[in-house]
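Ticket #4471: complex job returned nothing on first submit. Input attached below:
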Amino acid sequence: MASITLKVNNVVRRVEVEDNEILLDVLREKLHVKSVKAACWRGECGLCTVMLNGKPVKSCLVLAVEADGSEIVTAEGLSGRPGELAPIQKAFIEHAALQCGFCTPAFVVVAHYLLTKTRGKVEREEVKEYLSGLICRCTGYKQIIDAVMDARKHYGGEG
Amino acid sequence: MSSPYITLPEFKYLRPKTLDEALAILDQYGEDAKIMAGGVALLSFMKERLIEAKYVVDIKGVRELHYIRYSEGDGLRIGATVTFSEIEDYILQRGLVQRFRALYQGIKKLSDPVLRNRSTLAGNVVEALPIVDGPCLLSIFDSELKIVSSSGSRVVGVSEFISDEGFIDLKPNEIVVEIHIKDPPKGFVSTFRKYNPVTEFSMVSVGMSAIREGGRDLRDVRCVLCAATPKPVRLRRFEDLVSRVSDLRSSINELLSSVESEAAGFIQDDPYASREFKLHIAKMLVLDSLRELRSL
Ligand SMILES: Cc1cc2nc3c(=O)[nH]c(=O)nc-3n(C[C@H](O)[C@H](O)[C@H](O)COP(=O)(O)OP(=O)(O)OC[C@H]3O[C@@H](n4cnc5c(N)ncnc54)[C@H](O)[C@@H]3O)c2cc1C
Ligand code: FES
Ligand code: FES
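Support reply: We reran it on our side without changes. The output follows.
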């Protein structure tokens, strides 16, 4: 057992973990961050994606111990302000970019990163390419891409 | 805690801060220790119980392995813990896309952007399965690996690093510390194509490079066939032939049958596709690459 410290959505949390525990499991089962979804456990679906020290990573392929001292952001903390939504989350609602919603937390995290990094200056093809590691079984992706394209204006782009 | 998820077997996690410390751990534990860079391949295989480790040695804390630099004449030097995303960003920001075009194209098609934030080129080359892209991309250029153990260091060309049967030349106490892609000569052009209809992984890939001096003629053509072969294979007879033909249009059939006869020796049937199908794809990719290099 090791005791690790994670800053999750701006709150410092201390948790006991085994060396072989996966970050995904610890976030969901020990820290109860339930927006992070588990589906394939092997890097394929992307639904476990979280921001780890500023970059989106698939948390099913990260050890919890190696994240000691890291900062983690998930859909719950995307706007940086409790109870508020980030612009990309509002755009998903406006465009009905979800059906069951299982994939949505991962999509908004990755899209928010892309739009922030590029200051909203991305083309449709680049958005598609950047989201290609995430799987949605319901929407057919069109509404998702539309929402991201529309949200560009809130990140400095044209929208 | 009992987990409802697919779990990892038990191991001890070690995070050395220096290369010497990492090498000492490998000396002490030998085969029981496994290096982890991005962990994308290692943790997947450990979950499936295909790789065993009593000690997982995370080298991401070794700062001396985290660098990427380019200098004219020398080329690109990439430390072991540099991720694919970092290589991609560096090539773009330093204006090196044309110079290392095939590498850049290959990285853009490798798994997906989120996984590339973790996975490394060094880990990919050590994984060395026929279906991974790293060894193929490096074979399009003159590339070497720098390998270190507590008793010294050595430099190996990428084609010698992987045996004809697909085994790697790396002892349990050794670490790949650097990948060196030599600076291509003036007029160098390159391209990479990957046919992956089923998953991210390639069924057949072709990398091609050449020197172009004015006009559209190509010389020193290098053609590498990958994924369908146990390791990246140079199609030498095709390379010779294509450097000699003056009119591509009238020589197409001759070129393609040379690809077919040469590639046939390396390609087998597998559950996903027949040998004939893969040979057909290989020919199409070669043709496409050739057209592109002439028009670049
Ligand atoms: C969903 C999915 C899709 C993928 N798609 C692709 C794809 O399209 N193309 C492709 O090429 N690959 C693909 N991969 C494979 C994966 O991207 C690569 O294997 C990755 O580059 C491995 O890098 P890593 O840093 O994560 O290596 P790790 O998992 O950390 O290590 C891989 C192996 O190399 C050893 N190792 C690592 N670094 C060193 C070192 N410096 N010295 C000595 N040994 C070392 C480890 O012990 C381990 O055996 C995919 C994987 C997944 C899960
Ligand atoms: S659960 Fe991590 S990628 Fe599917
Ligand atoms: S909305 Fe159901 S999986 Fe995407």
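Chain A has a mean pLDDT of 96. Closing as resolved unless it happens again.
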